[in-house]
Amino acid sequence: MTEPAAARVVFGDRLDLAERFHEMLQEHGIRRGLIGPRELDRLWERHLLNSAVIAELLPPNCRVLDVGSGAGLPGIPLAIARPDLNLTLLEPMARRVTWLQEVITELELNVEVVRGRAEEGPVRERLADQDVVTARAVAPMERLAKWCLPLLRQGGRLLAMKGESAAEELERDAAAIAAVGGGRGEVVSCGVGALEVPTTVVVVERVAATRNASGRRRDGARRTRKDRGR
After folding, report:
1. Residue 68 counted as an annotated binding residue
2. Which H/E stretch holds residue 24?
3. CA 101 to chain centre
4. pLDDT tens track for 185-225
5. Where on this chain does S-adenosyl-L-methionine bind (predicted)?
């Protein structure tokens, strides 16, 4: 399948890398349990381009963590479209970690792969203070916020790729998001004018650390005397 015209706009002079990733998904995706059979004919629009256009929300040279990267979405398309990013892919399943490492080697991408889950203590220690955390089809916003916001620096942003019900989900889980340090989220569209169906992203900024009953912030810092008086 020939790539759509939008691919040349989105990937520019790195289109050849996107084409190779597309080929790898076509060749191995179903057999290795990375994509479903129905996805083969819509890899460009639904997966590669859908993922890559969220790059318009990323500042230059920022630290980005892709949580639950799976087949490498959105992480690999982002790495192709934006080689300036300091990108890490986080994935708990060994066979998918192996796949991600194969893709990175094949495409010669400067990307790190870490095996683990966002909620694990060692992962949070190793990957703390990210500028941006991305997640695609991982979990509802309540759980995503709980897992991902602690990985962000204050002022960092969670970019959760969602479907048509994004606004309803954000409203439903607003209290839970605030409870773990998230600000008031917003729903934005990426790839407008380039994609037939733009990518819907819920953006949540980490505005504060949260505290637990022991008097420790959930980012590990103890409450100050001033905090205790509040």
Report:
1. yes
2. helix 15-28
3. 17
4. 999 999 999 999 999 999 999 998 754 433 344 444 433 33
5. 68, 73, 118-119, 136
